[in-house]
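tool_call: predict_structure(chain=1)
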Amino acid sequence: MSGADERISIIVPVYNAGGYIEETIRMVEAQTFSDWELILVDDCSTDNSRQIIQDYLALRADQKNAIRLIEKDKNQGAAMARNTGVDAAGGRYIAFLDADDVWMPEKLERELFFMRQKQAAFVFTAYEFGDGQAKGTGRIVHAPQMLSYRQALSRTVIFTSTVLLDTYRLCAGTGGREILHMPCVGSEDTALWWKILRNGFDAHGLDEVLAIYRRPAKSLSSNKWTAIKRIWYLYRKQEGLSLARSMWNFVFWAFRATLRRI
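tool_result:
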């Protein structure tokens, strides 16, 4: 088989990623799985991100069909940038990658093999926390074998840059591509995973470290208070959970989140 039935569309939202974006492109080119398209969605960067991508593509005529730059004319945030990429994707499979994260060279190959083994629509992998230079710190978040919607509410172990989605299975099961769109809320990635799981799918975890989460000391995600407010909003507003059920899930979420940081 070949063509769109095999291709993985890799979606990268780009906003002021000039320090990383060329490395990100080279990292995708180094993947052992070669049937991919890379969709870079520039969300009106104010640095030189767009120019770096344009210059790189100008020198890589052989990759003109594999790497695409979409230039948004209005800054709308990561969720909308990813949704733009989803709508432009031509492959059967979708992988998300943030511009500052790192993939192991065999990431796509290993994960796609695992997805086919499990006949799954939604898979993710283990990952390691990295420092500002993406050097592994030894702190690993392991992937459980499977997560249902109920289980996922109390643990945020699914990391965006480890996810692989089968659009054929997901869209056929729900009647449209909207299920692949991230809601425009804080922690939009978690909101998407819950939406997919709520529609009757399970997430299958491959417990192999195939990505590094670059986490500078002052990153947005390190702001614990922000994370607390976001997860509470998702429970109460996005998912419409009762106060009691929100509290129950929050206690276990906070406990597991604390363990990951020890």
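agent: The mean pLDDT is 91. Proceeding to next step.
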